[in-house]
Amino acid sequence: MQGGPRPRRTGASSDARRYKATLHNPALPLSSPCHTLGLPSLDDDAGTSFEHIRSTHRAARQFVPARYRMTNLNVGSTIESVPPPNDADAAITVKIKTDDLHAWFGSSLVLDGITLRIVDRQVTSIIGPSGCGKTTLLRCLNRMHEETPGGRISGRVLLDGVDVYAHETNAATIRRRVGMVFPKPNPFPHMSVFANVLAGLRLNGLRTSRPEEVVERSLRQAALWDEVKDDLSRPAPSLSAGQQQRLCVARALALEPDVLLMDEPSSRLDPVATSHMEELIHDLRDTLTVVLATQNIQQAARVSDYTAFLYMGELVEFERTERIFTNPRESRTEDYVTGKFG
């Protein structure tokens, strides 16, 4: 190789590596999930509140790139004051309810009695090891599970109080209201960016008198407009993987859904594209409900308001995200978020 030593990289990428090293430093004690996030634990001081945790976190922010920051800690409230949502909560609006939800593939039970409340205009993360039922749970929420050979369910899924699986409920209508983004970007390869955004409308037999406005609105919501506005006729495969995934988000948003299901949306993206996706998820909660399935527990900590931990088809724990990562009720949850298994 010609030339001298490679210059040392600085800036955000250096900060990112330093922060990741903090998260995965084996010298840090793993007695509490807080330690994996570089935060004080409630075990360190029985009187510790989120105000103390937040102040410690705030002092460290200057060393942490924006995409690695946890932004959803509830300042001034203690752990015990943030229970998961339930039917008696007047302060929140539940968008989706599941009651004793079971799901099968043939004779194999995949979900075992899931009862969950998903809050409107919040991000709910579903975490758990591979094969625990995260994707199946998402697919049950918009009736895609029934499209799988041998797929069936029992229990109830309610969207705004309406039984999704009732005989009089139209499955196509539910899927328009509850959109989905998959792990692998899947734009239509023979269509332009413009045509891809409108594809969902056309496949559902819907027409718009102002397609240009729909395309611009959807691409802006997906944080892609500024990158593609000068050439909307370019073929979708010419975009980067991260841009293709955001194009798929725009295609889903063109239908104006109430809920967006995201199944490992950044699992095949590089760190920069992942940061764009996380910023997008954070912004989407202003207009709709997001349910995110992810094996990246740091990602769940960064972007979600609520977190559900699934293990072997069972819902182990469902809490505010800050509680899951600082003082979980279940030992299995703590073991998972501290990396002891999974």
Question: Quick recap of the structure?
Answer:
The protein is α/β, with parallel strands linked by helices.
What does this structure look like?
- This protein is α/β, with parallel strands linked by helices and 342 residues long.
- It is 34% helix and 20% strand.
- The chain contains 13 helices and ten strands.
- The chain has helices spanning 12-23, 33-36, 50-60, 134-141, 171-177, 193-203, 211-221, 225-228, 241-253, 271-284, 297-303, 321-326, 331-337; strands at 94-105, 108-119, 123-127, 151-159, 162-163, 178-181, 259-263, 289-293, 306-311, 314-320.
- The strands form two sheets. It has a six-stranded mixed β-sheet with strand order 6-7-8-3-9-10, sandwiched between helices.
- Helix 7 (211-221) packs across helix 9 (241-253) and helix 9 (241-253) runs parallel beside helix 10 (271-284).
- It is globular, with a radius of gyration of 21 Å.
- Mean pLDDT is 80; it is low at 1-83.
Secondary structure: elements and pairs:
Blueprint: H1 12-23, H2 33-36, H3 50-60, E1 94-105, E2 108-119, E3 123-127, H4 134-141, E4 151-159, E5 162-163, H5 171-177, E6 178-181, H6 193-203, H7 211-221, H8 225-228, H9 241-253, E7 259-263, H10 271-284, E8 289-293, H11 297-303, E9 306-311, E10 314-320, H12 321-326, H13 331-337
Parallel strand pairs: 3-8, 3-9, 6-7, 7-8
Antiparallel strand pairs: 1-2, 1-4, 4-5, 9-10
